Amino acid sequence: MDETETEALQARLEELEREHRALDRTIAEMAATGTFDQLQVQRLKRRKLHLKDEIQRIEDQLFPDIIA
After folding, report:
1. How many domains does the chain have?
2. Closest CA to 55 of 23, 27, 20
3. Percent helix, strand and coil across the chain, each rounded to 5?
4. Inside any domain, residue 58
5. Cα Rg for the chain, rounded, in angstroms?
6. What is the pLDDT of residues 4-46, one digit of tens each?
7. Could you tell me which of 9, 8, 12 has the C-alpha nearest to residue 64?
8. Contact between residue 63 and residue 18 where contact means Cβ atoms under 8 Å apart
């Protein structure tokens, strides 16, 4: 992997992590108000899980496990 690819992956990783944190805050705020659409919360949680999976894939590319 060359430096350009690494930088692009790191930028994408940061973007995904920001979106993941924003979804986390949104879900927490919705739960705190007590008035929320359960279906909407489920969709947000599903999106959050998708982001987590994508974050993990990128981290695996950037920081592969090296078995000694």
Report:
1. 1
2. 20
3. 80, 0, 20
4. yes
5. 16
6. 999 999 999 999 999 999 999 999 999 898 878 899 999 999 9
7. 9
8. no
